[in-house]
Design a protein that fits this description.
Elements: E1 2-6, E2 17-20, E3 30-39, H1 42-49, E4 59-60, E5 64-72, E6 84-88, E7 100-104, E8 109-110, H2 117-121, H3 124-137, E9 145-148, H4 154-165, E10 169-174, H5 179-185, E11 189-192, H6 198-205, E12 211-216, H7 224-227, E13 230-238, E14 256-259, H8 262-267, H9 271-289, E15 297-301, H10 306-314, E16 321-325
Parallel strand pairs: 9-10, 9-12, 10-11, 12-13, 13-14, 15-16
Antiparallel strand pairs: 1-2, 1-4, 3-5, 3-7, 3-16, 5-6, 6-8
Helix pairs in contact: 1-10, 3-4, 3-9
Length: 327
C-alpha cells in the first residue's frame, strides 16, 4: 500500500517519502480500515522534526482518518466489516496517511451515512482538543465569556463554534485579515492579537475583570500575558505546551490551568479517556451532520501532496483544516 512515511528525523516535511509499505494486520481489539480521507494537524509536522522513541522507520505518519472497516481482529465486539468509522490515532504507532490503517476498537466513532469522509476526517484532533478543553476541563457554561487565541486555525475555529453553540460569549483573537472568517464561525468580538492595548480591550468587554475561560493554542513567553486576560479564579486551557509560570507571583491570579494533550491518554495507557475520544467524536460528527458545526475544510489535496501541505501548515500559511482524499 502507498503511505506517507518518515524515514529519518527531519526539520522539513518535504523530506517525507511517499512509498509502498506492507499492509498492516489487525491485532486483538483492533480493526483495519480502508482509509478514504485524512486530515493534517500541526502535530504531524512537529513529529517529522523528532521521531517518537517508539517508532521504527520507515514510519507511517498521521493521526486523523475516516474510512471503511476492512478487517476485524480477535476479541473485537460491536464492529464489523463495511462500517464507516473515524478516529484519532496513537502518535507512537504507525499512522493513517496510508491506504490502510489500524485503529483500536474502543476509540472508533461511526460516521453518519449523510456525512462525507472528508468532513469526518477533519474533526478528531482539532475538534476533540477544543471539545475536551472547553467541556471536560473548563466545564464551560452558558453565559460565560470565552477568549479564543488562534481563532482562525483548526483548534481555535472549532472552539469558537462549540463555545457559541453552548451559549457562551466568544471573544476571538486573530489577525485583522481573518476577522470576517472568524465572525462567520460565531465570534461575538474579534480582536487583533498584536494590539498593544489588548488587555484593556478584553477587560472592557468583560466588565473590567477578564474572560471566564481562555483557550491558548500557543504559549506566550511569560504566562502573565495570558493570565491578565482571564479573571481571578478563571480557567486557562493550554494546548501546546504549558505556559512559563516562573515569573507569576503566587496568590495573584488563582487561575486553574488545564493541559490538553490527547496523545497523552495513549502514552499513559489511560483507557477511560481513550474511550471518551469515541464519545466526543460521535458528538462532533453528529453536530456536523445536523449542520450545527462547520468542519472548516479549506484545502482538499491528494496523498502525494501531504508533505508539501504539511510544510505550508508549519509555516503558518493555512487556516481551517486541510484534508487529503485517498479513495
Amino acid at each position: 500500500m502507498r503511505a506517507v512515511t518518515v524515514v529519518q528525523p527531519s526539520a522539513d516535511p518535504r523530506d517525507l517519502v511517499v512509498q509502498d509499505v506492507p499492509k498492516p494486520e489487525p491485532g486483538p481489539r483492533q480493526v483495519r480500515v480502508r482509509v478514504h480521507a485524512v486530515s493534517l494537524n500541526p502535530v504531524d509536522w512537529k513529529l517529522t522534526e523528532s521521531a517518537h522513541p517508539r517508532w521504527q522507520v520507515p514510519h507511517v505518519l498521521g493521526l486523523d482518518a475516516a474510512g471503511v472497516i476492512d478487517a476485524v481482529g480477535a476479541e473485537v465486539t460491536g464492529w464489523q466489516q463495511g462500517q464507516r468509522v473515524a478516529w484519532h490515532g496513537d502518535l507512537s504507532r504507525p499512522g493513517v496517511f496510508a491506504e490502510y490503517a489500524l485503529a483500536d476498537d474502543h476509540v472508533l466513532a461511526t460516521v453518519p451515512d449523510d456525512l462525507s469522509y472528508e468532513a469526518a476526517a477533519a474533526l478528531p484532533c482539532a475538534g476533540m482538543t477544543a471539545y475536551q478543553g472547553l467541556f471536560r476541563k473548563a466545564r464551560l457554561e452558558a453565559g460565560q465569556t470565552v477568549l479564543v487565541q488562534g481563532a482562525s486555525g483548526g483548534v481555535g475555529g472549532f472552539a469558537v463554534q462549540l463555545a457559541k453553540r453552548a451559549g457562551a460569549n466568544v471573544i476571538a483573537l486573530s489577525s485583522p485579515a481573518k476577522t470576517d472568517r472568524v465572525r462567520h464561525l460565531g465570534a461575538d468580538e474579534v480582536l487583533d492579537y498584536h494590539a498593544p492595548d489588548l488587555k484593556a480591550r478584553v477587560r472592557a468587554l468583560t466588565g473590567g475583570y477578564g474572560a471566564d475561560v481562555m483557550l491558548e493554542v500557543a504559549k506566550p513567553a511569560d504566562a502573565r500575558s495570558s493570565l491578565e486576560l482571564v479573571h481571578y479564579n478563571g480557567h486557562l486551557i493550554c494546548i501546546d505546551p504549558l505556559p512559563n509560570m516562573q515569573n507569576v507571583p503566587a496568590y495573584t491570579y488563582a487561575v486553574s490551568i488545564h493541559e490538553v494533550a490527547l496523545g497523552g491518554a495513549y502514552l499513559a495507557g489511560y483507557v477511560p479517556t481513550q474511550r471518551d475520544f469515541a464519545v466526543m467524536l460521535a458528538d462532533l460528527l453528529g453536530r456536523v451532520s445536523s449542520g450545527e458545526l462547520d468542519p472548516m475544510i479549506e484545502h482538499r489535496v491528494g496523498l502525494d501532496e501531504i508533505p508539501g501541505y504539511l510544510r505550508r501548515l508549519r509555516q503558518g500559511e493555512l487556516a481551517g483544516k486541510t484534508v487529503a482524499t485517498l479513495v
